[in-house]
């Protein structure tokens, strides 16, 4: 278990005076399921909630970097320089157009990092050691993982407190999810005992497709799934080409609202945390006569529902 100096899990001894930042790894070895879209828009949503957030691009493709407007050639240092010890994390941080959101960008050099670190004794914990002690001032850190279970993803899982799993509701989803959970279990056993799965995020959700509902039901039967659902949305697809999170590109789009709902759900508690409260309300309702809700209460209830 990491010491408080290294940046332990939130709530660990020594962190009472100042809450530790929470590090999320957004991971799924399957490509095209919305990992980068989730990383970028969730980080932007945290920032919109006035939580200072750091987005770390762990994918050599660098799409999370360009997704927040940080183009190749506009920065000198990247995550590669941090991993090989050429620069500190703070030196590689780049501000973005979103207030309270910074990014550590990535380049194709990260491919070389995997090769250069393969014989290093600390190859699995390089990111953890570079990241955890240097997060003063941040409330959340979001790590965008590549679509593989290689060394870069291993470093992200070892550095994280929690894992978010974006999942497209399709035929092969459960098989890939099972492999990922097995990897997370191995990482927890060998490197990071505090690592937990925060939940599964259903992405590119098309409610008109019956297979989508079947897969969603199957996933919910075996894993914790967020109430917030990310719909298939044109604005989400268009936003990266403009170098903006959906929240800046079109805040009223269903995609942007979906990620705002996801951020609210995480800020309010883990997936399913609202279920005991719901049961308490139902028990209380049975114990006393049910009153007709006032318009104000009804409006608050509507606002609290995750938007799809």
What does it look like?
This protein is about 40% helix and about 10% strand. The chain is of the alpha/beta class. A hairpin with a 5-residue loop joins strand 3 and strand 4 (about 100-105). Helix 1 (about 35-50) packs across helix 12. The chain is globular and about 50 Å long. The relative contact order is 0.15. The model is unreliable at about 1-10, about 10-15 and about 270-308 (pLDDT under 50).
Query: What is the overall silhouette?
Result: globular
- List the total number of helices: 14
Task: Estimate the mean pLDDT confidence.
Answer: 84
Widest sheet, order of strands: 3-4-2-5-1-6-7
**Main β-sheet: number of strands, strand sense, barrel status?**
7 strands, mixed
* Beta-strand content: 5-15%
Oligomeric state of the chains present here? single chain
Helix content: 40-55%
The end-to-end span amounts to 38 Å
Q: H/E series, N to C?
A: EHEHHHEEHHEHEHEHHHHHH
Give me the secondary-structure category.
alpha/beta
- Beta strands, count: 7
Low-confidence parts: 1-9, 11-17, 272-308
What value does the Rg take, in angstroms?
20 Å
Topology (elements, then pairings):
Elements lengths: L21 E5 L8 H14 L4 E5 L5 H5 L11 H5 L5 H4 L1 E2 L5 E4 L4 H8 L9 H6 L8 E5 L6 H9 L2 E7 L4 H18 L5 E8 L6 H13 L11 H5 L7 H4 L4 H15 L5 H14 L7 H10 L4
Parallel strand pairs: 1-5, 1-6, 2-4, 2-5, 6-7
Antiparallel strand pairs: 3-4
Helix pairs in contact: 1-12
């Amino acid at each position: 278990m990491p010491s408080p100096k290294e940046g332990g899990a939130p709530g660990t001894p020594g962190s009472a005076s100042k809450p530790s930042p929470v590090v999320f790894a957004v991971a799924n070895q399957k490509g095209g399921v919305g990992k980068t879209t989730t990383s970028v828009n969730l980080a932007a949503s945290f920032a919109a909630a006035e939580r200072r957030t750091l987005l770390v691009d762990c994918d050599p493709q660098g799409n999370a970097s360009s997704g927040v407007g940080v183009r190749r050639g506009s920065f000198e240092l990247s995550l590669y320089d941090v991993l090989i010890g050429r620069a500190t994390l703070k030196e590689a941080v780049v501000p973005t157009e979103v207030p309270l959101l910074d990014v550590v960008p990535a380049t194709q050099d990260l491919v070389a990092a995997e090769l250069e670190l393969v014989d290093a004794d600390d190859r699995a914990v390089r990111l953890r050691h570079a990241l955890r002690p240097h997060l003063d001032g941040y409330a959340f850190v979001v790590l965008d993982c590549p679509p593989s279970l290689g060394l870069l993803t291993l470093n992200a899982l070892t550095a994280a407190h929690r894992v978010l799993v974006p999942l497209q509701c399709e035929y092969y989803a459960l098989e890939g999810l099972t492999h990922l959970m097995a990897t997370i279990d191995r990482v927890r056993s060998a490197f990071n005992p505090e690592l937990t799965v925060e939940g599964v995020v259903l992405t590119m959700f098309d409610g008109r497709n019956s297979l989508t509902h079947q897969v969603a039901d199957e996933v919910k039967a075996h894993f914790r799934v967020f109430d917030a659902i990310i719909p298939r949305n044109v604005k989400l697809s268009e936003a990266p080409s403009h170098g903006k999170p959906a929240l800046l590109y079109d805040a009223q789009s269903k995609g942007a609202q979906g990620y705002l709902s996801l951020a609210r759900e995480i800020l309010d508690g883990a997936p399913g945390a609202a279920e005991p409260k719901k049961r308490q309300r139902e028990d209380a309702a049975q114990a006393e006569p049910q009153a007709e809700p006032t318009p104000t209460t009804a409006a608050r209830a509507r606002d609290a529902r995750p938007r799809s």
